[in-house]
Design a protein that fits this description.
Helix content: 25-40%
Number of domains: 1
Structural class: alpha/beta
Oligomer: single chain
Distance between the termini: 42 Å
Low-confidence stretches: 1-19
Strand order of the largest sheet: 1-2-4-3-5-6-7-8
Number of helices: 8
CATH superfamily: Alpha/Beta hydrolase fold, catalytic domain
Number of strands: 8
Strand content: 15-25%
Largest sheet: 8 strands, mixed
CATH architecture: 3-Layer(aba) Sandwich
Shape: globular
Radius of gyration: 18 Å
Length: 240
């Protein structure tokens, strides 16, 4: 009876076209020689690409649920482990986590890897980051006009040398969703500051959301169950 119920459920999912994306383990090398590991989620047909960047001392697994839902929504999703984290290579000798600017190369390598995939539609890329990952996403997007949308969880004005204010001004009128939790004073202040950076025509494309009791970075995804759906909806509106 249980087996029959399992098969019936499976057939119902297949018939409805709703199947959770299964990630592939991938790896690629940065320009400075660090091997970066990640998980690649593929939709049923080619779609825009989205890169997910975790926070300090975390891994790409923080994004598992969101990545799967984005792939089911039609996006090619790459969630990476930054250098010195997860399955990626260690920090190059002589470097520390006190200064994180070398991690920019990790995001650039992820962008190049995504561009090499035939499943990814060229020129339509989104970046999402949590905490330090949010700052990395802003800095990468400013230098890459093919990045058309950002989703930023708990960004900062200066996370260990990663200063995004000038970069988000350069990012210009492209869409940016900026999210922080009210009790997270530093991230909330930074989110408000980044939302108005470079104010002018098109600044309405900045979508600032201040939550309550949601925590910091990707922790907000667990504490606010609707947030994952909000991210999927955001990228649908700005990339598809």
């Amino acid at each position: 009876m249980r087996r029959a119920l399992q098969l019936a459920t499976l057939f119902a999912f297949v018939a409805s076209g709703v199947m959770a994306a299964t990630p592939q383990e991938v790896s690629f090398r940065t320009d400075d020689g660090v091997m970066i590991a990640g998980a690649l989620y593929l939709p049923g047909r080619p779609g825009p690409g989205i890169i997910l960047v975790h926070a300090l001392s975390r891994t790409h697994e923080d994004w598992n649920a969101v990545a799967s839902r984005l792939a089911d929504a039609g996006f090619v999703v790459l969630a990476i482990d930054l250098r010195g984290h997860g399955a990626s290579g260690p920090l190059p000798e002589g470097t520390t986590l006190d200064v994180l600017t070398p991690m920019m190369a990790d995001v650039s390598a992820a962008r190049a890897f995504l561009a090499s995939r035939r499943e990814a539609v060229p020129g339509r890329v989104g970046l999402a980051g949590a905490s330090i990952g949010a700052n990395l996403a802003i800095l990468a997007a400013a230098a890459d006009p093919t990045v058309r949308s950002l989703a930023l969880l708990s960004p900062g004005i200066d996370y260990r040398g990663l200063r995004p204010e000038a970069a988000i001004k350069k990012y210009g009128e492209r869409p940016a969703l900026i999210i922080a939790s009210q009790e997270d004073n530093y991230a909330t202040g930074a989110a408000r500051q980044l939302a108005v950076a470079g104010a002018g025509p098109g600044i309405g494309i900045r979508d600032l959301r201040i939550l309550n009791g949601a925590g910091h970075g990707a922790a907000m995804l667990a504490r606010q169950p609707d947030l994952a759906s909000s991210l999927v909806d955001w990228f649908r509106r700005t990339l598809l």
